[in-house]
Amino acid sequence: MTIDSLARLEPHAVPQPISASVRDIDVLTRAVLARLTESAGISDGSEELVAADLKGVVRACAELTIRAMGGGPLPCPAERLENAAGGCARGGIPIDTVLSVVRAVFGVALGQMFARTSPANSRGVLTATAVIVKLSQVCTTAVGKAYVRERRAEAAEQQTAAHTLTSALLSGTSAATAGARELPVAARYFVLALGLAAHPDETLPHLDRQVVARRKLRRVQAELATALAGQALSLLSVDGGTVLVPSTAATDSELDTLVGGLSRAAQTPITVTVVTAAPPDVPAAAHLAHELLDTVQHLGLGPGLYRFTELALQYQLTRPGTARDALETRLTPLDDHPDLLETLRIYIAANLSRVRTARLLNVHPNTVDYRLRRITTLTGFDPAETTGLWYLHSALVARMGRPRPTPLHVPADRVDSDCA
User: Fold this and answer.
1) Which of 67-76, 117-126, 179-188, 336-345 has the lowest mean pLDDT?
2) Is 245 helix (H, G, I), strand (E, B) or coil?
3) Phi, psi (rounded to 5 degrees) for 178
4) Rounded distance between C-alpha atoms, residue 382 and residue 352, angstroms
5) Would you state the torsion angle of the CA atoms of residues 306, 312, 317, 319, taken in this order, to the nearest 10 degrees?
6) What are residue 318's DSSP bridge partners?
7) Distance of alpha carbon 379 from alpha carbon 386, whole angstroms
8) What pLDDT score was predicted for residue 176?
9) Which stretches make up the PucR C-terminal helix-turn-helix domain (predicted)?
10) Per-residue confidence at 267, pLDDT binned at 50, 70, 90?
């Protein structure tokens, strides 16, 4: 039943079941308010404002009830109910509190009606009860619409504030001023650079790749919001991005758990590097974090969380300059022998285990020994000795860490900012 259909009720559909006092909107409003507790689930010392908002809800429902039961026209009281419920939402009143107030109106109305109705008037009781049930649906919908509207407006304001603060922090301009009005600026941040791998479904021909990727991103953002109670600031795309985590929202050791949760939410591996910084240093920290992420990806270290202390050597060896160029030349004699380069890489990754290297290469251990001797002959460095191994490993890191050209592609949809 809609408001219009309620307005078309026959004038005497309920044959005199309600007393004149119940038909009076003011009387019903006062009767309902008398039943409500003073707190009604409200706190923060805003009793006057809250009372006004709740009274507006009660009166709008009372007017709906009286006019519907009497069969009279309804002058858009549902709109007034939505406005009153919107005020409750803005005042921080939980929606279940407002709905309990709505139910209280109908409960009082039915109680007074039953008390004043003759047992012989069963048709009137049934008709009035049916009207109340339908009216309850109308009012519940109106309250729900009001809360959804207010929450959307609040989310938009929050996102705007988050975007402003995130942009200010990452650009290094007026972060304190940007955050003072809406969001607090933390004393220190964990600056995370995220690399999101493609979801397996993104490669399925019968699915829209961008839709799958955006859903992956939404899951990551939702997990950020849940895990950090909405305190993280993020600038993310479907391929990754930057997240700023206030040091008050998580400890360094808790970041491992956070990354694990993000990976499970994304349903795909995530590679993350982290650097800590005070607000003025966030731009430089973000740049460093993404350079570290590039280093991890170029070296093929795999998904997970990496801190700067774990990557300091690799990072330094991969910085452009004459030192890196000189290191790379140590491997030039192996350019015509890809099998030797692969053996060296796996031998180092296997923690210098001949047997494990042979197993990974699917060759005999003696073949590994032969190839290691060939590497010594061609490069002049013996991987079985400390000095030789150090130079060869450093040269390998320097070469693998060099940025590789990537094909041009159309950028995926980007979500500018989010307060997770």
Assistant:
1) 67-76
2) strand
3) -65, -35
4) 12
5) 80
6) none
7) 15
8) 52
9) 340-397
10) very high
Backbone angles phi, psi at 22, to 5 degrees: -70, -30
The tally of CA atoms less than 13 A away on the side-chain side of residue 407 is 2
Three-state DSSP state, 276: strand
Polymer length in residues for the chain = 420
With residues binned 3-state (H G I as helix, E B as strand, rest as coil), the percentages for the chain, rounded to 5, are 65, 10, 30
53, 50, 51, 60: which is closest to 105 by C-alpha?
A: 60
Contacts by 77-84, CB closer than 8 A, 24 or more apart: 77/3, 78/3, 78/138, 78/139, 78/142, 80/56, 81/57, 81/139, 81/142, 81/143, 81/146, 82/142, 82/143, 82/145, 82/146, 82/149, 83/56, 83/146, 84/53, 84/56, 84/57, 84/59, 84/60, 84/146
Pairing of strands 304-307, 240-246: unpaired
On the question of pLDDT at 259 being above 80, the answer is yes
β partners of residue 193: 242, 273
Q: pTM score > 0.85 for this model? A: no
Q: Which H or E element spans position 77?
A: helix 77-90
d(CA 367, CA 107) in angstroms, rounded, equals: 87
**What average pLDDT score do residues 114-118 get?**
69
Rounded to an integer, what distance in angstroms lies between the CA atom of residue 54 and that of residue 400? 66
Name all domains of the chain by residue range, CATH numbers in brackets: 3-154 (no CATH), 186-315 (3.30.70.270), 322-400 (1.10.10.2840)
Q: Tokens 């009143």 belong to which residue?
A: 93
| 3-state secondary structure (DSSP) of residue 335 | coil
**Mean pLDDT across 363-377:** 94
Dihedral angle of Cα 258, 262, 267, 270, to the nearest 10 degrees: -90
